[in-house]
């Protein structure tokens, strides 16, 4: 066996975004020895890119807001397919997590009377997103990192070692979860800089690896989002929930091609920006679906009044949930009413004074100026849908984050259930904090209940190492970049925003062929530098994960014969109350592919059902489900 390092921890957290850092802090606060592993540099997770804010019903800007309203909005946004228990915990605990962040040093924007400021966002009834300009994720990460440093300083004072109880492993990629019988016992990883292997021995692992966007060609996600946590969980015997639901954010940049897909924050619309087509029409008024008709303005005048008098007017349809806006943009472009570069126009220049745009949306102003040579204080942006977020993920216990494999936990974007078929903007950042904390605590409870700690079998390590080295044994194998490009094209073109049976079948056929190609990719030894910083090798290993999650998405998308949230079937355009009762669950099949089963949704608790009018419930539930 090649030389490898071994390290032992109580809890290993894979992922150093908001979910991972909050889980690690929790486990450390409860006295455990923790490792945080991150594929990218410490601080460079997707969380850092979050712009709009963190949704929490603090009622700072509109005192009518409370957890019940937030819960209702989240369930509506997810079209009632959410794990209602997760939505309940999230709505109740999000304010506390935001205040905790403030106590740890986060500097949020303020209201005039000095409270944490909250802004409007799609699908939220009241201004609810706590924010720091359009750089909220940066502040979340800065604060949680600072908290970790302060805990390390405490440990130094007590043990003379900063890393006595919490160590960060940056630029270290986990390729396999290790098991002792049916229990988790550790993880196998390589260090990017050196290519050296590391075995982490740990009875409890928290997955917090984020999403899967790099399986698609046009995406707001960066290179780390290759579905690693999803695939690691599947390969370890856990299950994934409702993988067909992918959020295509309505507003990504469409031009220039090199930056296609980069996010244009929803705050642009929350702060007054409007969408228009090539005929200058505010087309969103034509796309308000029946389930939302009562809550959205029917004229531009009413929509505009809402910004200053939200109590007496309905919100503009530009602020419908993301799935609705993305489909509407897609339809306008298909109907030939798109912008010159194949999107639609998003204009804030005619709606707000230049200085306000620069103050409220500094990153957007900078991004368009630098990347597209467009001054958003003077002219509209061109935008179109981009693959942004995966609602599906590791099936977990809502209260503890425990997956079906003993010792495995998951939180954040790589876990499933919370957002149902569509996530509301801003709900992710608070999801990370609420469920990161719960998963960290769940892992500690599990540890404390363990009679016998597991041991890492040699055979598991040998298998992990052989798999990691396999691409070097095929120096003349296919180039991983070529295979990745074809995988991304398949997912974008055949499993994208609008889906049909024939295209999904074609996608599955293409994925079967890609499976052979993925197992044939090869890389050359990098010479004296060995395996250090070898991006071709890294991608060759990531491909296994992207392929597996793509199979899950395509299979589940073919199976679900309805349109709901982030899953639109042209051949089944309506929502079906019968399908709402079904979770689609993926597991690994005997041949290394994906098996799909139907699982009944747990009926909602009566006190939660009673938060809704029966007339609204009738839009989603079957007769026998109604209270
Ligand atoms: P991440 O923050 O992505 O962290 C994942 C971590 O896992 C990283 O450290 C990565 O290196 C690590 N990792 C992955 N694979 C491995 C592996 N194999 N081994 C080791 N480490 C691994 N949500 C909101 O609520 N509000 C917003 O305003 C908002 N804006 C957004 C803007 C953009 C541009 C994007 C892309 C997303 C936005 N979102 C927003 C969504 C939100 O940011 C993400 O859903 C969220 O940050 C995910 O957090 P996470 O902790 O689950 O994962």
What does this structure look like?
The chain is α/β, with parallel strands linked by helices and 627 residues long. Among the domains are: 250-386, Succinate dehydrogenase/fumarate reductase flavoprotein, catalytic domain (Flavocytochrome C3, Chain A, domain 1, Alpha-Beta Complex), CATH 3.90.700.10; 468-581, Up-down Bundle (Methane Monooxygenase Hydroxylase, Chain G, domain 1), CATH 1.20.58. It has 18 helices and 20 strands. The protein has helices spanning 18-29, 67-77, 84-103, 136-159, 228-235, 267-270, 300-306, 322-334, 354-360, 362-372, 427-448, 458-469, 480-494, 501-519, 535-559, 577-580, 606-609, 614-617, and strands spanning 4-8, 11-14, 34-37, 54-55, 118-119, 129-130, 166-169, 172-180, 183-191, 197-201, 204-207, 240-241, 246-253, 274-276, 344-347, 381-390, 393-394, 408-410, 582-588, 594-600. The strands form five sheets. A five-stranded parallel sheet has the order 7-3-2-11-18, covered by helices on one side. It has a four-stranded mixed sheet with strand order 1-10-9-8, with helices on both faces. A four-stranded antiparallel sheet has the order 17-12-19-20. Strand 8 (172-180) and strand 9 (183-191) form a beta hairpin. The protein is globular, with a radius of gyration of 23 Å. The termini are far apart. The model has no long low-confidence stretch (mean pLDDT 95). It binds flavin-adenine dinucleotide (FAD). Flavin-adenine dinucleotide (FAD) is lined by residues 14-20, 37-40, 45-47, 49-54, 136-137, 173-174, 208-210, 220-221, 224, 228, 263, 389, 412-414, 425-429, 432. This is Succinate dehydrogenase / fumarate reductase flavoprotein subunit. Residues 10-429 form the FAD-dependent oxidoreductase 2 FAD-binding domain. Residues 484-603 form the Fumarate reductase/succinate dehydrogenase flavoprotein-like C-terminal domain.
